[in-house]
Structures are given as structure tokens and as C-alpha cells.
Amino acid sequence: MVRGPYIAGVSCPSHALTGLDCPGCGSTRSIAALLHGDLATAFDHHLLVPLVLPLLIWSWVAWLTRGISGRRLSNPLNQRWASLTVLAVVLVFTVARNIDPLFGGWLAAGVR
Q1: What's the DSSP call for residue 74?
Q2: Which end of the chain is more exposed for a tag (fewer CB within 10 A), N or C?
Q3: pLDDT in tens, 40-62
Q4: CA 25, 28, 31, 35 torsion: positive or negative?
């Protein structure tokens, strides 16, 4: 029997201990939804995954191309400002998704 990434009773250890959504809560379920072509569910489980995954794939292809052929492709994640921007976005998103239940809970990690 094949199971999806959500198994009843199993949740993120960080969420189980603190009751808060960590920056990665829902990312596995979001990727699984993307693989099944369900973009709405992917966004429901983790808002950033469908937005950031194309950048990560682009970065990986650029790295792989340079390693195989020596040809350098542009890589937006290789800029000086990229690391700080990613860190700031993840921190703001994490804080927002944990105070969001006050505003309706639409940033939370979806179904548990």
C-alpha cells in the first residue's frame, strides 16, 4: 500500500513540542501536492514551496551545467543579497504563519 506524506497522528516534532508551525511545516505535503498537479493544495500546505521550488530547480540546473560543461548560467540565488533576502522572507513568513490564526489561519500548514 502506498501512502501519502500525511499519516494520521504523525506530525512535525517541532509542532508537537511547541504548537507552532516551523518554517518547513507542510513542505513535504506541498511538494507531494505539486507532484500530483494540485497547485491549490500545494499553496494551502505551504505558501512558499510552490514559489521557491522553481528557483531551487533553476539554481540546481545552473550548478549542474557548470559542473558538467563548465558553462556558467545566471543564478539568482548566487547574488550577494539572496541569502539575506531568503532569510528575511522565511523569518517573516514563520512569524506571520504563527500569529495568523488571529486573522483566519490561511498561512498555517494546512491539514494535520
Answers
A1: P
A2: N
A3: 989 888 889 999 998 889 889 98
A4: negative
- Assign residue 89 a region (left: φ > 0; alpha: ψ between -120 and 50; beta: otherwise): alpha
What distance in Å separates the CA atoms of residue 30 and residue 50, rounded to the nearest whole number?
Answer: 8
Measure the CA angle with vertex 34, ends 90 and 88; round to 5°. 10
Whether pLDDT at 97 is above 80: yes
The C-alpha cell 549542474 sits at: 64
Longest C-alpha distance within the chain, in Å?
51
Taking the C-alpha atoms of residue 38 and residue 1, their distance in angstroms, rounded to an integer, is 22
DSSP summary character for residue 79: S
